[in-house]
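Budget justification note: compute hours in this period were largely spent on complex prediction jobs such as the one shown. Inputs:
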Amino acid sequence: MHIILLSGGSGKRLWPLSNDIRSKQFIKIFRTKDGSYESMVQRVYHQIREVDKEATVTIATSKTQASSIHNQLGDEVLVCVEPCRRDTFPAVVLATAYLHDVRGISGEEPVIVCPVDPYVEIDYFEALKKLADIARGDEQDKALKGGANLVLMGMEPTYPSEKYGYILPTDKETVSGVKTFREKPDAKTAREYIRQGALWNGGVFAYQMKYVLEKAREIIGYADYETLYEKYDTLEKISFDYAVVEKEKNIKVMRFKGQWKDLGTWNTLSEAMEEPCVGDAILNETCENVHVLNELDVPVLCMGLKNMVVSASPEGILVSDKEQSSYIKPFVDKIDQQVMFAEKSWGDFLVLDVTRESRTSKVTLKPGHGMNYHSHARRDEVWNIISGKGRCVIDGKSRPVKAGDVLEMKAGCRHTIMADTELKIIEIQLGPEISVHDKQKFELETKEE
Amino acid sequence: MHIILLSGGSGKRLWPLSNDIRSKQFIKIFRTKDGSYESMVQRVYHQIREVDKEATVTIATSKTQASSIHNQLGDEVLVCVEPCRRDTFPAVVLATAYLHDVRGISGEEPVIVCPVDPYVEIDYFEALKKLADIARGDEQDKALKGGANLVLMGMEPTYPSEKYGYILPTDKETVSGVKTFREKPDAKTAREYIRQGALWNGGVFAYQMKYVLEKAREIIGYADYETLYEKYDTLEKISFDYAVVEKEKNIKVMRFKGQWKDLGTWNTLSEAMEEPCVGDAILNETCENVHVLNELDVPVLCMGLKNMVVSASPEGILVSDKEQSSYIKPFVDKIDQQVMFAEKSWGDFLVLDVTRESRTSKVTLKPGHGMNYHSHARRDEVWNIISGKGRCVIDGKSRPVKAGDVLEMKAGCRHTIMADTELKIIEIQLGPEISVHDKQKFELETKEE
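Corresponding output:
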């Protein structure tokens, strides 16, 4: 099974846990068997592995998310990074070309595309396998009147939602043809569609790779992965639904009746939580239907709350009535909070303190990982190593470092650090204009001291 | 006017803004004319100055609060530090002896004693002046049938509270004799007392100093301030009410009808707030009767809340229904959070990060102030100066310091730092057992480098 997971979104709706660079799929809220917590992307990845150990999982995403993905899933996961955002058709084509041209997978092979963030159970992934089998046109599916160029998954709707597209099948079989599509209708129209047997379009579909690559040749002049990547920023923004799905005649839809939830608001997210609190929290006995997600090191005490969600992170604190939490976006848009926590491929950083001319952060490097070799033009830095062992390179000189060491780098000085064991650093930045953009990267050249 | 302000209490009821070392009177919540915020102790101090520029204000308090008092009121305020806590009779005697023996104020002079934390307006302090005049037995008070050894202020009760003592006056005049006292009665008894014209005992009283010093001679063998201070820890814990008030025959009570509130719970405190938010907070339009006190640098967003208080500090976060907030104490008692923020006489510190073997804090020194000269046996320290100018002494060697300097002190090394301008330092402590008790103080001996 080859799966392409589309990982996008900037997700202000789950502020303060999500923000401009941290999407909802990276929030760790699901309790695992070993008692720790995993994110939606980790949960989906582990579920796929449970159904098919050999599955090829490719995550199609932006540059900003690639670090978080490697941080959460390790280095072995395939990540297809879009050079810039160009909607789902270019993204699906790029990921398909990556599998075909870079990973060498046959064009006859079916691929399943699905969003990275639905809250589903194992039956969903069993259904995805089935979807791929239909796209391949396997023997077992001859009963389904032959294959199809494109096979969609249609979710049995539970209410007349205005936020999904609807697919009207030709009959009531498990797999059927498609009579018509309807983009996000109003509630009244949605109700009428559901009456006629329409299904939600969840953006889940399967195809043989050669089919999409052929479409790409026609529509955007696809030749191979390399050249597509090069000209990616010149491509038109266009959705896969619009470019392909709605124009395809040989198309089938497979019904899915299992759990399929979008945890896009605090209300829906908290419903999926197995326990009322994640993190350090106390609810007194008069609290009812309260969920707390606390990422801070200090406790949250809740007394006499009803139907509420409380969430605290280094970015801020949300206290909201659950229903009201759906209307969060315009308020978060107004908040001009700098990013206080970020996952990087090498670990993460947490901003501890900001003054006019300084910024203090806690930097954690994973064993075996290191930063880029870089310099800053307008700030000095001090690294106070507080735990672990590793090696730093400063202006070409390499030396071992350990807890207690203090390293001073003046503006212009090239530096990096690599972790042997997990390395924790208190980094002090000092300068008149501290900016993430003030960073120049270099090839690492070292001589032993 | 000579006033002794009793400043006590550890105040878990206003967690997370109050804690073991930070009492409610130091929380800055009252908007001043210049737009900044002041605490209860600052508000009371400024109100006294407004009524009487020449007033002698002495704050009787514990060692732990003395730093906060100097930090908030400056160095000129008189602070009478109790060597240990011994209830109000020893505290009042010690402060009176301090005024008489150390400050040289005549025994004929009246003194007013009152708690530091009532929420009152200017009329209260006008009434205190009157109370002192009666205690002095001035000409103008001959109409009051002569002076009295002790003059109490009786607050007109607004409801049958169970938390105050009651004073039953002999008549309904502004100043009258006292028929009887009643310690905190139940609501039913309180109602009956109020019906009979009883007043609340707010712990506010005035006397000529020689009267209390004479009582102290009789009861605890007072001789002078010095010897009293020396034997303070051997004194019995006894309240002023019990030791003196309830036994005194020549006693008067003066009615006070103005505002007099105890802001001891989140409910009463928020009622006294002039605006719904102190600190960075956003309330959406569906919030009703919500108060937010946010001491963190990140925003609090509230949506759809009714009758609630939200408070965030470096110690934790409280989200509570206002009525429920009165029951906070047992929950806070269970929280084992180390002190994250503290005011010191030289400035303040804020803990930014704690790991198993490290602690990172932001230390701010006020201009002209410095720490004690000290060392730690079991931890190394690094000072990263992030702003300001000053001078440090490390193992006897003095040198100027400025933003960007990094100072490393190994365990055992003696060190201090003094601020010329406001000095901000990121302090990293590293060691196996980081404890506030691991500190040895020394006399400062320096040689210029």
